[in-house]
Amino acid sequence: xxxxxxxxxxxxxGCTLARLRFASGLHSLRSCLALFAVAVFVSGVQLYAHxxxxxxxxxxxxxxxxxxxxxxxxxxxxxxxxxxxxxAKGGMQRWGVEWGGAGQLGGQNITRYTLKAGxxxxxxxxxxxxxxxxxxxxxxxxxxxxxLSWGGRPGETFD
Length: 159
Hints:
Blueprint: H1 5-49, H2 53-56, E1 63-73, E2 80-86, E3 92-98, H3 102-106, E4 120-127, E5 135-143, E6 148-150
Parallel strand pairs: 3-5
Antiparallel strand pairs: 1-2, 1-4, 2-3, 4-5, 5-6
């Protein structure tokens, strides 16, 4: 079979298009890999930026406060409970209690409606390194009025 000039052009054009598709595929692969590398880096930065509880709280100590809940902030990355309760000397203080994030607590049947201002609560946890800040990292919670408790069953912890 005899080839004509047009057959050669069509063959050449077909090869060129195939090369372009292959190069485009490599470009897409490189773009995906670069995007993946950036995502891994950003995730690592976020994990690195997360604070250490040991730097803020005495994890080897436990304190217990009993008082009236003033505010419950159900949010990410950590929820907070504000409680009016006496300190070791008997003086009333506003305690800031750090708890798990909304997503983590939601998986443990705690919602934004679980606690309300005025609730009488008993909280155990790790005291803050600066006693004058009246901070606690929650380890356990009890509400005597209805028996609600958190922190005593497997999985009821937070990071």
